[in-house]
UniProtKB/TrEMBL annotation:
Residues 247-258 have a biased composition (Basic and acidic residues). It comes from the Bacteria. It comes from Luteitalea pratensis. Residues 247-298 are annotated as: Disordered. InterPro entries: SAM-dependent_MTases_sf (IPR029063). This is Methionine biosynthesis protein MetW.
Amino acid sequence: MSDVRFTRSVDKAHLARVKAAREQADAAYNAALSALDAALPGAATMPRPSAAPDETQVTPLNEQFKVVGALQLPGGLKGRLLRPLWALVEPLFARQEAFNAALVDHINRNVAGGRSVRDSQVALIETVRIELERLATFHSALIVYLQQITPYVDSKDYEFDVLATRRVEDVGEAVETLHHRTVGPGGAISGVGDELNRRLEMLAVRERRYEARVGALDAAHAQLAQSLGVITRATQTLKREVEHLVERVPEDDGRDGSPSRPSPPVQQSHAPCEGDPEPVSASGGHGRLGEPALPATTSTNSFAAGGIESFKYVGFEDQFRGSATVIRERLQDYVPLFAAQQDVLDIGCGRGEFLDLLRHQGVRARGLDINHEMVEVCRQRGLDASEGDALGYLRGLADESLGGIFAAQVVEHLEPDYLVCLLQRAGDVLRSGGVLVLETVNVACWFAFFQSYVRDITHVRPLHPDTLAYFVRASGFPQVDVQYRSPYPDAHKLQHVPGGDAWHYAVNANVDKLNSLLFTHLDYAVVARKP
């Protein structure tokens, strides 16, 4: 077992900085505490109460304020002589006595007030003294409390330090004990772990082999299912061909044993277009159809046309086109273009997905395909479908007899001269306001070209969107719109490199350029309307 090495997170310089900060904080705290202690006020000198009121003359004044009542006239002649004089001065003495009485009464009433004022002063001074003593006691207790904070905090720090040290020691002791206990079994455990790893690797190898075998079985199963489908279609084709041959044998041939003569080939009743292009089939099937129907000795796409080998191309379409549900979803967007039309022709109708969509919308439509198996599939579903050549079929129609023409994944199967003639005749058979929709592989998208176009051996020539739009416009359709479809998923495109400098900008600009060439839209449709 390897020794465990710890990396210290606190060095000596860090400890020195912490200590200096702590000492600075202690000094500031002590200085503030000393300033607070010095700011406490001392005991104030209490004022003395005022002197007590002088009451020594109060009693004599109360006894001697009467003047008139104290004078008495003598009797006899002296009294009679003084009476006239007394009558003159008696009012003066009466007023003096009244003044003396009022003054004595005032002095008597203020004696109690003077006493109460002094008593109040004495009580107030005593109360202030007591409160000052209590305030001084509180200040002293506050200083004592503040002086105890530092020892209290220090004791907590010491306690935490001791606890931390104890825990570190406990952990060290536990690690040491674990080390001693695992030194012995460590080798055995390591051996068991190696054995488990070896067995896990063996299981992983077996799992990979099992997955490979399962994948091979799945692939073989898929191939077997595909082969069974091909065999089934071949059997059905052979059965129909035999039934057709039996129907062609005259009843009397069976009696006399004479061989029947083959029917002469059906000749085309129309003259070829300018340039005499070879007649081409109309088998598009909304997938990768529409191959030339050349004579049997020169046809390069005869296996996609009618005949006993036509079932092979049906299997090819089923494998690479997609299921009927997928095709229906892809063609659903075209239905509104024909909602106001009747007598719509689906060239290269294939299995009839678009015909079925139009039927559900109440649009009267018919299909055309050169592949006998495709036509049989449509008829079994109750759809109106004919077997024949596209240009020959259009030449057999009256002018302005169709409300719309639809061809999905057909035009890339046609020779240029044949395509030009087909577009020219389409303009003749459409009514005014009729719609022409041609969908094909977007060869301007490199992914679509190499994954879709090249894969189908019946494709004759790639058609750039600008090229097809030009020939449609030149065939008498002034209103031409190119609609790009089936966008390549953004998640699968080349992604931008995160960053904001010039290098990242240049790389991302080149990524956008590559995406615009490699991964855009897989298909496009040329939509035109006859004026």
